[in-house]
Amino acid sequence: MEFTDRVLTCIDCGAEFVFTAGEQVFFHDKQFKNDPKRCKQCKAKRVRGNQKVRPETRTTCSECGAETTVPFKPTQGRPVLCRSCFQKQGKLVMAPEAAR
Ligand SMILES: [Zn+2]
Ligand SMILES: [Zn+2]
Cα separation of 8 and 27, whole Å? Predict the structure, then answer.
């Protein structure tokens, strides 16, 4: 089977990118049915984005009762503060995220 470079359009940024003959051979070997939908940059961005996602736990601020999310599992009995209460209290050590 012969493959030639094809120009596809990225569904994320709309940029045209080349689906090279070599990549088509690879897709054919793997029996991937669908053409790639994203350019290299957007694909890389998605991979990076996925890696950055951290588990967030929904909880309620023990100070003001506002709903907030924390990047860790709150320990029972320990106060969890929303961002603004945390800033007000300042000294309490919470998540590394909020301490930044
Ligand atoms: Zn793109
Ligand atoms: Zn609060």
Answer: 15
Domain limits of the chain?
Answer: 6-52, 57-99
Rounded distance from Cα 53 to ligand 2 centre (Å): 24
Considering every ligand atom, which ligand is closest to the CA of 94? 2
Report pTM. 0.47
Rounded to the nearest angstrom, the distance between the alpha carbon of 48 and the centre of ligand 1 is: 14
Tell me the pLDDT tens digit for each residue of 4-50.
999 999 999 999 999 999 999 999 999 999 999 999 999 998 877 76
